[in-house]
Design a protein that fits this description.
The protein has about 350 residues and is α+β, with helices and mostly antiparallel strands. Helix content is about 55%, strand content about 5%. The protein contains 14 helices and six strands.
Length: about 350
Amino acid sequence: MGKAIEHVFTEAWHGLCTFHIMQNATKHLPSNRNSETNLLTEFSSCMYDHGDKVKFEEAFDAMRKKVQKQTWLDSIYKVREKWAECYMRNVFTLGMRSTQLSESLNNDLKIHLKSSVDIIQFFNHFERVVKGKSDNELKSEYESREKLPRIKMRSPMLLQASKIYTPVIFECFQTEYERSTAACTKVLDGNYQFAVAIGTLSDDPIFEEEYNVIGNISTETASCSCGQFERIGILCAHALKVLDLMNIKLLPPHYILKRWTREARYGTIQDCRGRNIIENPKLAAILRYKVLSHKFVNLATEAANSEECCILIENTLDSFSKQVKGRMNACQSNHDAECDEQMILEAPKEHLRAARLKKKPV
């Protein structure tokens, strides 16, 4: 599959699921709880922690020397560019390193499926699983549009990001912003070139690896060697620190990806055939339901203390119900008529001619 992807999807990158790699590591690497070094921990560090290729090679060689049978380690090392952090610096992964969505769907299906289940039962269960996931997605999007996340520091950039990003993405951005406040900088040669290291907020701070950041005031950019924005689409703490040093207090528009915002589903996009895909119509219905239900609840709360007001509301609702049903039936009839007319317009001319002849009296 990897070789086919290189030829067919020339601009795509094929990676390996880190979850399955760790499952295989558990099977093939010996584990000794009494030992000071844990091979699984070392392998996990090689996968996630080493951003430099030289350090990765040194750590992997040190780990291999501790294993007598190196068959699995040798095979996984040959495809290291598909799972090691240092080889994925320029890959736009959006932070995903495993087949999370696929595995969760497979797991939901496997829980209730047995060899005795027939094809009808399978599709019934499959439809329930898909509907449940669609409902959860719709609920998450509704909450992301209607609820504001919790802001820990009331800075202009965080206030801006809280209104733009979805709650989950904002939490990630806010974490990077907090880390930037603990960053130390060292001026390098050139205008607005810095070496930035993030420290821990403690009495004895420990600093992470330094990264070089190049800032530009005219374009309001801060390019960091860690490459987090290029991989995930969220600015890193190093770049945020340099933006602050350049007195840029709001997040520049070119650092806001639409896919991470509350407006991600607004507008139209095109599918593989060039057809426009509109926003989910169910979401608009839920928003209208939310507004109406809020008004009805407030009105019922006020009228509950008066029997006369309750009778007035009941009579009014009965009258409104008839009007709403009539309007809905009329809309449905108009819709059906439009569909029938469209079908007639699209029918071949000979069929129309035949239909006219049948209507003529004998």
